[in-house]
Amino acid sequence: MSTVNSSLSKNENPTKGENQDVLTSVFHCDSFVVKKISYEGITVLSFEGINSNRLRKELEKFALHAKGDIGIDFSKLTGLQPSIVSVLKGIQRRIQQRKKLLFLCNPPEKLIDLLKLAGQLEHFQITKDSDSRPQAPTQTKKKAAPQKKRRAATTKRPTKQKIAHLTQSLKRTEDLERGLDSASECVRRFLPKKSPICEGYTFSFASEACDKIGGDFFDFFPLENGELGITIGDVSGHGIDSAIIMGMTKKVLRLRGRELYDRTPAEVLTQVNSDLFEDLGRKLFVTALYAKLNLKTGEFAFARAGHEPPLLVKLGANTAPLSIHSEGIALGMAPEKIFSNVIEDCCLLLNEGNSLFLYTDGIVEAWNERRDLFSRDRLNYVLEKTPAGASAEEILDGLQSAVSKFCGDTPSEDDQTALVIVRT
Question: What are the domain boundaries of the chain?
């Protein structure tokens, strides 16, 4: 999630515990991040970034709105100043009035020193990660405490262990996020970084994942006969599994496209389906379009493995785009014999002044706050209004602007990828 300067942006991820809801949330601001996890009436707040007046105000707000016992983790906060002590004292006083507990989780040495200097350290409960392990009962006999005190002790110790456990859960989540960030960067390296340069054509592309790791892909690669191979595809599902399949499918398509440059697109996709069928295992499938563009004649030969049909746009004509359909089923859905009997070759001519639009279904299935779809009708309308002489980049910018305006702040629920080809 991108950071914002004027207000906190929020991402919530509710998950189920055994009998309770575990709610994790991440709040981003310009100089710090707040991570919150709540479970069984306990809330842990982790602050990461730079200490500031804004952070101290948000700390009070978060702590006083939280229900139950609270743990605060400053282990990743820098720039701690003495003013943080008065803030914590105020929070502790309010928490005590509610007859709840306030814990400092893995407090850094700087915070310990500040609390000592202020004579406040003894007034705070301290918990560390090691406290998440239940302590074995001691063997030494001690004088039995009064019943009320024993009950108080038995309530505090489990709470301390739960606070430490939730702190560790946050850290494991952070480790997972770092792994996803690394995987996301790896996925981005799979995709082209710049458009091909071909005389008489302009190209533009955009691909945006709805999660950290996307399953959409596209590619351009030269063929031995002078044509340009073009692919676009969409792996079912999201996450690491889809990303692995995406990288594998894109690579196989490029290899088979180059190797079988003198075959039709349908024959290439048939071979790719045979290559991937066992690996996909019918649990995942891939929609894909493979095409060969003859740069001299503008002939665009393609086949669709269940993918969205290409749209032929006559720039400046103020007419609806022509959707070019052909038969085909997704990769991984059927063995070679069935797949080859269904897949169909098709060909169109990209004349000068015309454009081709290739896309994944995440664009037409984008939602707004009223749960209305952007739809193919809106896509066609945007492309229909494209003026004559527009470049591929201008066409794509216009579409992205239309989708963004339609969706507003509603987050995307599917990856969105689009390719634009203009013959000048």
Answer: 9-133+147-183, 191-423
Q: Which residue has the tokens 């690579």?
A: 251
Kindly report the pTM of this predicted structure. Answer: 0.63
- Give the strand pairing for 125-127 and 102-105: parallel
Nearest Cα residue to 24 out of 39, 36, 6: 36
The predicted-structure confidence for 57-111, as pLDDT tens digits, reads as follows: 888 888 888 878 888 988 888 888 899 999 999 998 888 888 888 889 888 899 9
**Secondary structure of the chain: what % helix, strand, coil (to 5)?**
35, 30, 35
How many residues does the structure list for the chain? 424
Same fold, 9-133+147-183 and 191-423: no
Q: Which residue's entry shows tokens 């606070």?
A: 163
Contacts of 95 (CB under 8 A, 6+ apart): 63, 70, 101, 102
User: Looking at domain 191-423, does it have CATH number 3.40.50.11540?
Assistant: no
Those residues whose C-beta lies under 8 Å from the C-beta of residue 158, and which sit 6 or more positions away, are none
Q: C-alpha distances in angstroms, 162 versus 71, 91, 158, 165?
A: 10, 20, 6, 5
For the stretch 133-179, pLDDT in tens is 555 444 544 555 555 444 444 344 456 777 776 676 666 666 556 65
3-state SS class at 99: coil
- At residue 303, φ and ψ (nearest 5 deg) are -140, 150
Judge: domain 9-133+147-183, CATH 2.160.10.10: no
Specify which residues 101 forms β-bridges with. none
Which residues are bridge partners to 373 per DSSP? 367
